Amino acid sequence: MIQFLDLKKITALHYEELHEALERTLKSGWYLKGEETRKFESAYAEFTGTGHCIGCGNGLDALTLILRAYIELGIMKKGDEVIVPANTYIASILAISRNELKPVLVEADINTLQMDDSKIEEAITPRTKAIMIVHLYGKCAYTDTIGRLCKQYGLKLIEDNAQAHGCKYDGKRTGSLGDAAAHSFYPTKNIGTLGDAGAVTTDDTELADMIRGLANYGSAKKYIFDHIGINSRMDELHAAVLSVKLKYIDKENERRRENAKFYIDNVRNNRIKLPSQEYWESSVFHIFPVLCERRDELKEYLSHNGVQTDVHYPLPPYKQNCYKEMAGLSFPITEKIHKEELSIPVSQVLETEERETIAHLLNQFE
Q1: At a CB cut-off of 8 Å and minimum separation 6, what does 151 contact?
Q2: Cβ neighbours, 10 Å, residue 106
Q3: Residues linked to residue 235 through DSSP beta bridges, in sequence order
Q4: What is the mean pLDDT of the chain?
Q5: Domain ranges of the chain
Q6: How many of the other CB atoms lie within 10 Å of CB of 297?
Q7: The domain 7-106+113-246: what is its CATH number?
Q8: What is the CATH number of domain 249-364?
Q9: What is the dihedral sign for C-alpha 277, 147, 44, 241?
Q10: Does the predicted model carry a pTM greater than 0.90?
Q11: DSSP character for 327?
Q12: Tens digit of pLDDT for each residue in 279-300?
């Protein structure tokens, strides 16, 4: 079976360095809020081109903390609106509703699989305080139109960068394009650790200080609690792992792009829609998404022939039971994407022979 994502192989790429980093951390006797975390935060801030990086427990916490910090700073209040893509992973919307803000969903663009920026302005109201873009599947979601709208209406631009580590727009990394960005280092991400971890990047020092305090029980000074915070901190072991992984991300993203470009150049089947040039030129291919009206048949066919695939995602957030109040919403393009999307193996450890096999099978699908 050609695995969709072979984490064992990915770990093996850097096994010796990872082993040394973990051993060093274990021997240090310091496992939280120590030198390893400071080292990674500094390196990741430099990598993204931002002034601050604050490590936290996971990507959802990172998003939640950004919004919570804006509330604590008086920039947002409960009931305010945040514009967000209709076709995103549920974490984007959970972070909004957890802060008692209102998610306002906007339809997708079938060519980019991102939020359709031509439909954003009509969703803006006097209660709108931010636009949250989601670099879904590893493709940059930022556009000049989105940047202009944020300036025109005085809105915060928040990036959900859980899936696009290392991606660039006009020379700048995702994670530095807006006012603040959330990052996930879940094991399957382009930079993944050996468990859960996340981070926020920003150039806003006041926001960074607030987020760091909120993530530490609401305390900026030991045993002094100015806010009702949470416990969401990156531990030293994950920081040590991530410092190793960060060194190789550009090289590994380039391998992902090579694999994706091979599919684009070699798969010719009118039953399968490949990512457009507009899509793949600005993507680090966290996944390689294809659309197929007979998606489930294609998935079964590939599995039968030894290729593991995945679906991102079977149901959009507004169709989930936890958001029954959104059940009446309809976004036809988003629903088409969720019904037809199939993720094909594309990772940095996919062998040349394996991608050739996959391309051949895709061409033979009838």
Answers
A1: none
A2: 21
A3: 32
A4: 97
A5: 7-106+113-246, 249-364
A6: 13
A7: 3.40.640.10
A8: 3.90.1150.10
A9: negative
A10: yes
A11: T
A12: 888 899 999 999 999 999 999 9
